[in-house]
Amino acid sequence: MSQARWVGLAEITRPHGVRGEVRVRLYNSDSELLPLQGEVLLRPASGDERSARVDSMRGADAGHLIAKFRGVDDRNQADLLRNAEVCVPREAFPLLEDGEFYVCDVIGARVVGPRGELGHVLELVSYPTADVLVVKTALPEAATVELPLIDDFIEQVDAEHHEVRVNAAAAQFLRQGD
Question: CA-CA distance, 6 to 154, in Å (whole number)?
Fold first, then answer.
């Protein structure tokens, strides 16, 4: 395998049938990227990750696919893949419009305010009313704060430079740690 940056798109939940197929739960049910891949990286919960050639992949129901990987030919072999993450190379992702970003590109990003670094992004959580960045602050207590991903706080998400720039109000919010 090349030195590609691999990003998890799904998790194998269980075997499907007796011929080595597995049921795969997509992290983003709207994504159409995984079925287009000829090769993926399987990252088991324990054990070594490995490349896998995709023999077939088809839709099952909302948010799930049925996949068959080369060399996995029976239910017992398929069961060994249970809970493995299915990853694709980051460069396989479609290009985005200006102002858009992929979540995988901001996880770990530095959060910077008008007077310097404030912390880093741990994850992005989607609530019905807004998406929030979960930020581990640079405070001595290293508080975890949810920062709404709205124009009132965020000046720019610069995925290319792995940085989220926030305004003074957001900086104050993050400095308070609550």
Answer: 27
CB of 164 closer than 8 Å to CB of 157:
yes
Cβ of 28: how many Cβ atoms within 10 Å? 13
Nearest Cα to Cα of residue 123 among 115, 131, 114, 133: 133
Residues 40 and 54: beta-carbon distance below 8 Å:
yes
pTM: 0.76
3-state class of 34 per DSSP? helix
- Report the candidate in 103, 95, 84 with the shortest Cα–Cα distance to residue 42: 84
Reference 150, options 172, 178, 169, 136; nearest CA is 169
3 state SS for 38-97: CEEEEECCCCCCEEEEEEEEEECCCCEEEEEECCCCCHHHHHCCCCCEEEEEHHHCCCCC
Question: Are 9 and 86 contacting, i.e. CB atoms less than 8 angstroms apart?
Answer: yes
What's the rounded Cα separation, in Å, for the pair 119 and 67? 39
Instruction: Give the tokens for residue 118.
Output: 């404030």
Torsion of CA 90, 44, 70, 102, to 10 degrees: -20
pLDDT tens profile 35-85? 999 999 999 988 789 999 999 999 878 889 999 999 999 999 999 999 999
